[in-house]
Amino acid sequence: MKIILTHEVSGLGTAGDVVDVKDGYARNYLVPRGFAIRWTKGGEKDVAQIRRGRKIREIATIEQANEVKGQLEGVNVKLAVRAGDAGRLFGSVTPADVAAAIKAAGGPDVDKRRVELGSPIKTLGAHQVSVRLHAEVVAKLGVEVVAA
């Protein structure tokens, strides 16, 4: 099935790309979650609009990405969450939580879809988080999860 991606999907493409995927993957996962729309002849107009929006949001050059990487690595991020007595969280920390904590700590505005957690963060303490700024630039920063 041919689809148009509306968001970046890891391993598949970025917003505005027209890709061919299996019917079940598109019908059961990508389209219901809003990551893609079905490709139609009229949908080509949507592709231009999605790409225009992507250009506004994305970091265009490697130099800009390295500059933002320097800003991110200089930020001390603390995230206050609810936790039990043993240090286990009620739920887990999401990429949106990390992006909001970076912004609150005085760092640059980061899209939550660019934040990559190696594994789900479900305990208190220091954790490593990656932020994919550009295809070739990844910023690694430490996030300290503390009890609220």
UniProtKB/TrEMBL annotation:
| Protein name stated in the entry | Large ribosomal subunit protein bL9
| Keyword Aminoacyl-tRNA synthetase found | no
Q: Which family does it belong to?
A: Belongs to the bacterial ribosomal protein bL9 family.
GO CC field: ribosome
- Boundaries of each Ribosomal protein L9 domain copy? 13-40
The protein's UniProt keywords, in alphabetical order, are: Ribonucleoprotein, Ribosomal protein, RNA-binding, rRNA-binding
Which organism encodes this protein? Streptomyces siderophoricus
Query: Does the keyword Calcium feature in the UniProt annotation?
Result: no
Question: Which Pfam families is this protein grouped with?
Answer: Ribosomal_L9_C, Ribosomal_L9_N
Lineage top rank: taxon: Bacteria
Q: What is the purpose of this protein?
A: Binds to the 23S rRNA.
Matches recorded under InterPro entries: Ribosomal_bL9, Ribosomal_bL9/RNase_H1_N, Ribosomal_bL9_bac/chp, Ribosomal_bL9_C, Ribosomal_bL9_C_sf, Ribosomal_bL9_N, Ribosomal_bL9_N_sf
